Each structure stands twice: as C-alpha cells, then as structure tokens.
Amino acid sequence: MGIVIAILLFSFIIIFHELGHFLMAKKNGIRVDEFSLGLGPTLIGRKIGETFFCIKLFPFGGACMMGEDDADDMSPGSFNSKSVWARMSVIAGGPVFNLILGWIFCVILIGMTGYRTPEISKVLPASSAQEQGMQAGDIIKEINGRNVYMWEDLTLYTVTHPEEAPYEVVYERDGKEHTAMLEPRVLEEGGMPLLGVESGKVQEAGVLRSMQYGIYKVKYWINYTVDCLRMLVTRQAGLQDLSGPVGIVNVVNDVYESAAPAGIGAIFLSMLNFGTLLTVNLGVLNLLPLPALDGGRLVFLIIEAVRRKRVPPEKEGMVHFAGFALLMVLMVVVMYNDIMKLF
Q1: I need a surface site. Which of 94, 147, 279, 280 has the fewest CB within 10 A?
Q2: pTM here?
C-alpha cells in the first residue's frame, strides 16, 4: 500500500508542476502540443482541443510539450514567437506551482496540528544557554542572522551548520531583545551536543495564522533543501545521501508503515509532510541555473532579455543536451545507490 501511495503522491506533485507550465502557456496564448504524466511509451491518451493528454508507462516524470526546442517555429501560438517575458513566466510556472502546492500542504498541516513556537520551555543545567542567562519563556528570534519563526528553524540551522558554532542567538524577553553566544555541549554521557534549550509548546492556529505560518514552513523546507545542497558542494554529505525515485518510494513506504498503526489520520498527516518536502525540493532544484532544468532555461532567457538578442538556438541546445546527459548519468548513479540500499 505504501508503494501505491508513493506513486500517487509523486505523480500528483509532477502533474501540479506541469500544470504550472500549462496554465502559464495558456495565459500567454502558447500552443501546448502534449501534456503527459510519466515517461516512455504512451498507455492511454486523448486529444482535447489542440493538446494531447496522456499517461505513459513509467510513472515518474512528466512533460508539457510546447515546441520550445523548435527554434524555427515562429508561427502564431508557438512558444518562440512570444516575448522573452512571456516565455520566462511559462518556464518559471512549474517550480512556482511546486512552492504553491507546498504552501497548501503546510496550511493544512498547521491548521490540523498547530506549530511549535520558538519559545523556550526549559533550559538545561550546565548548558551554554544557562551560562548565558537564558530562561524559560524567552523567545528566540534569530540564529546567526537567520530569522527563527518556528522551533524547527533553530534545530535545522544547528544540524546543517555545525561548523559555525558557537552560534549568535537573538532572543526576546519582556519585549526587549538580547544576544547570547551558544555552544553545543554534550550534557550526558553518550549524548549528542546540545544548545541546552528545549521547546514543548505547540500553538494552535486558525485559518489566517495557518496561512501565515504555512509560508514560514515552506521557507523552512526551502532552507532545508538549500542547506543540503550546500553540504553536498562542501562535501559534508556525499552522493550516497541522495535519493532518486526508487529511494523516494522506499522512504514513503517506510513512512506509511510507521504511521499505519496510529490510523488513517496519522497516515494522511505523514504523507502531507513528506509531500511538502518533495514538492518544495522539486521546485527549488528546478530553479537551479543548470542546463536541462527550468533554471537553466531561465538563465538563457535572462541573457536574452539583457542582450535584447536570443542566444543562438544551436548553442543553447548543445548546452542543454550536455546538461541532460550529465543529469542522466547522475540519475543512474543515484538509482544504483538506492537499489543497493534495499539489500
């Protein structure tokens, strides 16, 4: 059952991504030739208007085909006949829709479960926080210049930036801001280094606050994705830590099995939370300025907007082809790692 849910969840996120491209194309009067879910041979399909909607054999990936790679097609309604700004909005539509979907998921999650405030409920003895005079009731506002809206913001920063300790923490007490330098310490034998502050307060949220903190939660997942990418670049993490479709299905199945004993409500919330991670991840990764990704295409469109002249299509095509080839090699490596982890 977990595998089925994983495929449905991943497929829904892909459809929403492609829907962003599709709706922005329609808004700008661009012809969409094909809207597909999956890769490989077509299983079923139907042409509605000018667009062929179909489901393909392999349920990962998707496409919104607008003829963007056909540089010679300048006919009315073609992608390349439109202004550079119209084309930029179409390319950005997919990743932006991923972030919007993540916000929708977060609003539902926070509306149902609330959020953990950055208010300290306990200061541990012999900790750096105690030495700095921090107390229960203090509200943490920043850590090393990054805003803290929820307790997860604080824990994420300490996990992904261990090399930056001690941390400059700004906190509020009685309406006034104070600063403390917190250093993680091992407070009990065999334990992990801790800042010495704990939070146990969960704040319920109404509709408006759920919408507000939904934005903060999406920002948290964006920071999570960017921090993980930084750790890859700085070699604090390796390729073995990456997961592709096989790994994602396996993780979703594990999440399902962990939540199943608690009932359908727990399964729903767990899938929403993991779905938020997936859709925000997809949105951020697609905006990276790398060839073959939406971000790579945006780079060429930005260059065109600045130069007021299009980059020669054959050169752009070569760059995207090389990027796609490297991406496929990376996918093979990641898939191999995912399969090896199953055994």
Answers
A1: 147
A2: 0.88
